[in-house]
Automatic annotation (TrEMBL):
It is found in: Cell membrane. GO terms for biological process: transmembrane transport. The lineage of its organism: Bacteria, Pseudomonadati, Pseudomonadota, Betaproteobacteria, Burkholderiales. Residues 203-409 form the ABC transmembrane type-1 domain. PANTHER family: ABC TRANSPORTER PERMEASE PROTEIN, INNER MEMBRANE ABC TRANSPORTER PERMEASE PROTEIN YDCU-RELATED-RELATED. Keywords: Cell membrane, Membrane, Transmembrane, Transmembrane helix, Transport. Belongs to the binding-protein-dependent transport system permease family. CysTW subfamily. It is a multi-pass membrane protein. InterPro entries: MetI-like, MetI-like_sf. This is Binding-protein-dependent transport systems inner membrane component.
Length: 420
């Protein structure tokens, strides 16, 4: 009997190993199947999300307009003290670099970039480009004299400092300008002059408008989401369809509708005047009021949905239990019910705030000059100024603000879970 038991154990060992290997193969197949199913989505996210963000961050610190064109000039200025006039080799390098340009389009790109550093550089570069060639067989000293004859501004260190400052392909200047800092002629970082420090105010304005919109959305969405969560499923689904109607309508159409409603002779002012609440029409367009009203209307569903999903999971028996134990209905609501919806409040507020700080169409159409948010200036630098570096730097500021907000939210959620 003992020998038979040993034989059974010896035979069972290989079968157990075969079973373990079969389980491992099945697990590998399951993982490969899961990866193969999610791979198209990962590739899509990589191409449409991560790659554009990487390109944006790269362009925010890239400065190719000067470095790619004035190669010889940048090399000659590498050891320059940036105080006196540069050596004659820099003048010769400038004439050689400008003369090698195939057409005036590249000269115009170079001129725009330098003009953003020093006013007047655009006319200086284009005038010099049209005056080329200066002559054959000129020495560096003769080239220097000829360039100063073409335009006396080449005898000023200011324009050479702008070239030397931008001679490197990689620069922090765009990011510094986005937070109201800049580098002086010696390369030291300092604050922008007061009259040029604008982006800090614009960023604060963006956060201010976004915060007001978020608070108003929360005040409107919380009672509505609570009301929907207390209904029977059929009626709640019907009303939720009405809440989601804005998702099916173009933002541009909704903004145009608000222009019609909020104008001086529009429906809103006509109703207020007709009921006697006001004596004359209110100014609701092309100011902060119109921007906030339209943004709240557009973003309200993004606050309602997270709140509704959380409120549906809160058992109504909690409130009844608190009331049966002696608490007043109002105290029971704020002390028992509301704390259980903090996750929905946080998710909705974060979503609305992040969407608000990137808004462009609504402030551009409904707001005035003092109501434009940071995204407006990103579009301005992209479409009008053709300064991609500055546009990407401002986009990087918005991206950083979004990531910080998300990090704060995650920390708050973790703290709440640990306390719970």
């Amino acid at each position: 009997m003992h020998s038979l038991a040993l034989d059974d154990q010896a035979a069972a060992a290989p079968r157990g190993q075969d079973l373990a290997r079969a389980l491992q193969r099945a697990e590998r197949r399951r993982k490969l199947t899961a990866v193969s199913l999610t791979l198209p989505l990962l590739v899509f996210l990589l191409l449409t999300f991560l790659v554009p963000i990487g390109a944006l961050l790269k362009r925010a610190v890239e400065n190719p307009e000067v470095a790619d064109v004035l190669v010889h000039t940048g090399g000659a200025l590498s050891g320059w003290n940036r105080q006196d006039l540069p050596p004659a080799a820099a003048f010769a390098g400038l004439a050689k670099d400008l003369g090698a340009l195939p057409d005036s389009a590249q000269a115009g790109t170079l001129a725009r970039r330098l003009n953003s550093e020093v006013p007047g550089a655009r006319s200086l570069v284009m005038k010099t480009y049209r005056a080329l060639p200066l002559g054959e067989g000129l020495s560096p000293e003769q080239t220097r004299d000829r360039l100063i004859e073409v335009d006396a501004r080449w005898g000023e260190a200011l324009y050479w400092q702008a070239i030397a400052k931008n001679a490197s392909r990689w620069t922090p200047d765009y990011l510094l300008a986005a937070v109201d800092l800049h580098r002086d002629a010696a390369g030291h970082i300092e604050a922008m002059p007061t009259e040029q420090a604008v982006f800090g105010k614009i960023l604060l304005r963006t956060f201010n408008i976004s915060a007001v919109v978020t608070v108003l959305c929360l005040l409107l969405a919380y009672p509505l989401a609570y009301w929907l969560s207390t209904m029977e499923a059929r009626r709640a689904n019907l009303l939720m369809i009405l809440v989601l109607v804005p998702f099916w309508t173009s933002i541009l159409v909704r903004v145009a509708a608000w222009i019609v409603l909020l104008q001086r002779e529009g429906l809103v002012n006509s109703a207020l005047v007709g009921t006697g609440l006001i004596d004359e029409p209110l100014a609701l367009l092309f100011n902060r009021t119109g921007v906030v009203i339209a943004m709240v209307h557009i973003l309200l569903p993004f606050m309602i949905l997270p709140l509704y999903s959380v409120m549906k999971s809160v058992p109504p028996t909690y409130l009844r239990a608190a009331i049966s134990l002696g608490s007043s209905p109002l105290a029971a609501f704020f002390r028992v019910y509301v704390p259980q919806t903090w996750s929905g409040v946080g998710a909705g507020a974060l979503l609305v705030f992040i969407l608000s700080i990137g808004y462009y169409v609504t402030p551009a159409l409904l707001g005035g000059a003092d109501d434009q948010m940071l995204s407006y200036y990103i579009a301005q630098y992209t479409n009008v100024e053709i300064n991609w570096g500055m546009a990407c730097a401002l986009g990087a500021v918005l991206l950083t603000a979004t990531l910080i907000l998300y990090g704060v939210y995650r920390r708050m959620v973790k703290s709440e879970l640990s306390l719970g």
